[in-house]
Specification:
It contains 16 helices and 13 strands. With 322 residues, the protein is of the alpha/beta class. It has two domains: 189 residues, 3-Layer(aba) Sandwich (Rossmann fold), CATH 3.40.50; 103 residues, Magnesium chelatase subunit I, C-Terminal domain (Helicase, Ruva Protein, domain 3, Orthogonal Bundle). The longest helix is centred in the first third of the chain and has 18 residues. The chain starts with a helix and ends with a helix.
C-alpha cells in the first residue's frame, strides 16, 4: 500500500461496513475500535451486561482475518493460564524434558473478557504483553505476534464481584469505549437477528493489507501545531495549571498521563488518513479526545460525592476550545 490516504480509507471502510452489518447501534464505537487497532494500541470496553462488548470484539477479529483467542477472566484464573507454562513431557523412547506450552496471549487479537472479574495478580499478567509486546514465562522472554491487539471488556465500575483495574493498568489501554443502551430502532433489529442465523463477518482484508495499513499510519507526518495541541489538551485535565478548566481545578486528583498525549497523537494520525491527509493537524488530535483521556483522568473524593464524571471535565475542555 502506498502513502495514498484513499487506499487506507478503502480498507478501513470495508472493515467498518462488515462490523456495522454484524453489530447494531455501535457505529461510533466501531470507528474508535478500528482507530485504536491501526494506531497499534489496546482497547478497554465498558458497558452494562448484554450490550455487545464480546460480539464486537469477536466480529472485529473475524473481519480482519487474524488469529484470535478469548480468555474468560474469573477469580480462579492464574497468570500462567494467560502466558503459558512449562509442562513435563515423556517421549516414547523414555526421554524426559520440559516443554513450554504457550498461553492464549500468543495470538494477534486477544479478547480479555470481563477482565475485572480476575484478581489483580492475574490482571497484571497482561501488562508486559500490552506494553512491550513480549511475555516472560518459565524463565524466558518470548516475543508476541505482530500485530498484537488486546480488547478487554469490563462491567461498570462498582459492579459486584469485580477487582477494579489500577490506574497504571488502565493507562496501558490506548482508548476506553463506553457502550450506551441501544435506541428503539436498534432494539428492534437486535430482536430480528435473535431468530436469524447471521454469524460473524468473513474477512474483508488480507493480512498483508492490514500490515500495509499499519505502516501507512506510522508514516503520517507530525505538524508541530498538532503536537502542541496534544500537550495543551492533556495539561488542561490537570488541576491548578494555566491550561486547566474550572472542573479540573475542583474535582481532579491528577490528570491524564503523558501516555494520554501519545494516544492523541497516534489516534490522530489515523483520523488524518481518514480525512485524506498524510500530515497530523490539530483537528485530528481533537477527534479522539474523549476515548483517549476518559480513563486517564483520576477524580478526587469530592467528585465522587457530587457524581462528577471524567467525561464532564473533557466536555468542558472541548467547549472552551471551540
Amino acid at each position: 500500500m502506498s502513502d495514498d490516504p484513499a487506499q487506507f480509507q478503502n480498507g478501513f471502510g470495508r472493515i467498518r461496513d462488515a462490523l456495522s452489518r454484524s453489530i447494531v447501534g455501535c457505529d461510533e464505537a466501531i470507528d474508535h475500535l478500528l482507530t485504536a487497532f491501526f494506531a497499534e494500541g489496546h482497547v478497554l470496553i465498558e458497558s452494562e451486561p448484554g450490550l455487545g462488548k464480546t460480539m464486537l470484539a469477536k466480529s472485529f477479529a473475524a473481519a480482519v482475518g487474524l488469529p484470535s483467542a478469548r480468555i474468560q477472566f474469573t477469580p480462579d484464573l492464574m497468570p500462567a493460564d494467560i502466558t503459558g507454562t512449562n509442562i513435563f513431557v515423556e517421549e516414547a523412547g523414555g526421554e524426559r524434558r520440559f516443554e513450554f506450552r504457550p498461553g492464549p496471549v500468543f495470538t494477534n487479537v486477544l479478547l480479555a473478557d470481563e477482565i475485572t472479574r480476575a484478581t489483580p495478580k492475574t490482571q497484571s499478567a497482561l501488562l508486559e504483553a500490552m506494553q512491550e509486546r513480549k511475555v516472560t514465562a518459565a524463565g524466558n522472554t518470548r516475543p508476541l505476534e505482530h500485530p498484537f491487539f488486546a480488547i478487554a471488556t469490563q462491567p461498570p465500575e462498582g459492579s459486584q464481584g469485580t477487582y477494579p483495574l489500577p490506574e497504571a493498568q488502565r493507562d496501558r489501554f490506548l482508548v476506553k469505549l463506553v457502550l450506551a443502551f441501544p435506541e428503539d430502532d436498534a432494539l428492534r433489529e437486535i430482536g430480528r437477528r435473535s431468530v436469524s442465523r447471521e454469524t460473524n463477518p468473513e474477512a474483508v482484508v488480507s493480512r498483508d493489507e492490514v500490515e500495509s495499513m499499519l505502516a501507512a499510519v506510522r508514516r503520517v507526518r507530525l505538524a508541530p501545531a498538532a503536537l502542541d495541541r496534544a500537550g495543551k489538551l492533556v495539561l488542561a485535565t490537570h488541576p491548578n495549571r494555566p491550561e486547566s478548566v474550572e472542573l479540573a481545578d475542583r474535582y481532579v486528583r491528577y490528570g491524564a498521563s503523558p501516555r494520554g498525549a501519545q494516544a492523541l497523537v497516534v489516534t490522530g494520525k489515523v483520523h488524518a488518513l481518514l480525512d485524506g491527509r498524510s500530515e497530523l493537524q490539530p483537528e485530528d488530535v481533537d477527534a479522539t479526545l474523549l476515548p483517549c483521556l476518559r480513563h486517564r483522568v483520576i477524580l478526587n473524593f469530592e467528585a465522587g460525592v457530587e457524581g462528577i464524571r471524567p467525561e464532564q471535565i473533557i466536555e468542558q475542555i472541548t467547549e472552551r476550545d471551540r
